[in-house]
Amino acid sequence: MTMQMPSAPLPRGLVTPKAYSNEEIEAEAKRLQKVINQGTLWDIETCKTIAPLTLEINQLKEENDVFLIAHSYQTPDIVYGVADSVSDSYSLSKAARDAPQQTILFSSVRFMAETAKIVSPHKTVLHPSPDAGCTLSDSITAEDVRELKSRYPGVPVACYINTTAEVKAEVDVCVTSSNYLKICERLPGDRIIFVPDQLMGKHLAEHLAGKKEVINYDGECYVHATFTGEKIRSWRNRTAEQGIELQVLSHPECDADVIAESDIVGSSEVLREEALRLGSEGKSDIMLITECGTADRVRAESENDLNLIGTCVMCRYMKMTQLEDILQALREPHPDQIIELDDEIIQHAQRSLDEMFRLAE
Ligand code: 13P
Ligand code: SF4
CATH code for 224-308? Predict the structure, then answer.
């Protein structure tokens, strides 16, 4: 794969895919429409417009032996059209670590691509959207963690995976939405520092009450912080009046008040699986309290008629990546689309991720 800077980088969205025959485009559009499985939004004409992009991306992936990882919140054209692995942040960090390919393209926000680099430093990790940040990872610096450690010497520090490599390098262990309760419970002592998600930290503190004190931080996911327990209660009452028994599924980045009102709490992948399971058991009135990508996946993958009620909020960072960005990064990545981290940072951050894998399994 060529890695040099193109002489005049194309603006995003202006990448011209290779020319394909009408037959090739027709066949690819039919495949896309089937796998995306949302006929009204992704009709055959729309699928024809993206077919040349997915054709060339899939061709380049094969020619250059690239493993394309996408988080569940990426758009359906990426999730179903070009990704080799789609899941939550825990599973995707393992997929990156275990992939035999020497090049990984991570379609998601920056901290996930950095995590892929930390767990597999010898691989080339491409991140098509350098501006795709995250309000949680932007809320804390390595210096903030050092300051907390000096204020509470000897207290174990756990950080949510939604953090920079530099922050991960300062802590004892990383956690994700699928293992934070289990891992934090297993840490030694009667106090822990938990950064940076204050809403997850609040929920964690309730879970550990009487066993451990949680020293919390003040970060938030701007998407999940939008939801309130009050909104859920009012939806439950309204739908109950129509004889509907609402199933409420929420992500642990929501407020503790939302969590208390929810039937199921879990990572993006757990919510997808649980919504599909509920649908197959005839419990089809489902409210997904999370980013819209989870509902897109459930809609695409459910074999049952589901009534996905009310609410989802879109993450502007997760939705920054387009097929054009992926194609451009595969053809000729700009330097800021190749994840480079300091060796020492990688070594230290790797310890906190290894500790996560050890304690989570
Ligand atoms: P998951 O690990 O549940 O996919 O969460 C990542 C994330 O950024 C949710 O907002
Ligand atoms: Fe960050 Fe929230 Fe977006 Fe996830 S949904 S990437 S936590 S801002």
Answer: 3.40.50.10800
